Automatic annotation (TrEMBL):
Keywords: ATP-binding, Kinase, Nucleotide-binding, Serine/threonine-protein kinase, Sporulation, Transferase
InterPro entries, sorted: Anti-sigma-factor_SerPK (IPR050267), Anti-sigma_F (IPR010194), HATPase_C_sf (IPR036890), HATPase_dom (IPR003594)
Cited function: Binds to sigma F and blocks its ability to form an RNA polymerase holoenzyme (E-sigma F). Phosphorylates SpoIIAA on a serine residue. This phosphorylation may enable SpoIIAA to act as an anti-anti-sigma factor that counteracts SpoIIAB and thus releases sigma F from inhibition.
Protein name per Swiss-Prot or TrEMBL: Anti-sigma F factor
Catalytic function, reaction form: L-seryl-[protein] + ATP = O-phospho-L-seryl-[protein] + ADP + H(+); L-threonyl-[protein] + ATP = O-phospho-L-threonyl-[protein] + ADP + H(+)
Organism whose genome encodes this protein: Lederbergia graminis
Annotated EC: 2.7.11.1
Sequence similarity: Belongs to the anti-sigma-factor family.
């Protein structure tokens, strides 16, 4: 079965938890394991926080866009901003790389996303924003037999 949802919200840090919970509630229909649910919530947090802090440089006038498509056991998650973009995607994907060390950013956002999802795609152009596409295949729980 295919199902889709889209949301958009202001680039405010307090909206990160809204995004995480909303996506988790939507994908709950797949009955993911607790680990899978935690991983997806973490990935949403990372991507949304990146859009707010790096994409819009904490300008609340920016809008973060999320779309989620469920297709059988696959979750296709897209998080997009129209912010400043990423000058060097390969450099940004390196563990511990951050452009905001003064904000105590760990530089592990892309590494976490890559480790928790089955596929990560990043498209970005300076001055026109960033789109993160994340794909995860949810494990089908096996019925317990007595």
């Amino acid at each position: 079965m295919r199902n889709e949802m889209q949301i958009q919200f202001s680039a405010l840090s307090q909206n990160e938890s809204f995004a995480r919970v909303t996506v988790a509630a939507f994908i709950a229909q797949l009955d993911p394991t607790m680990d899978e649910l935690t991983e997806i919530k973490t990935v949403v947090s990372e991507a949304v926080t990146n859009a707010i802090i790096h994409g819009y440089e904490q300008n609340p006038a920016g809008i973060v866009y999320i779309s989620v498509t469920i297709d059988d056991d696959m979750i296709d998650l897209i998080i997009r901003d129209n912010g400043v973009g990423i000058a060097d995607i390969e450099e940004a994907r390196q563990p511990l790389f951050t452009t905001k060390p003064d904000l105590e950013r760990s530089g592990m956002g892309f590494t976490i996303m890559e480790n928790f999802m089955d596929k990560l795609e990043v498209e970005s152009h300076p001055g026109s924003g960033t789109t993160i596409r994340l794909i995860k295949y949810v494990t089908k729980k096996k019925a317990l037999c007595n």
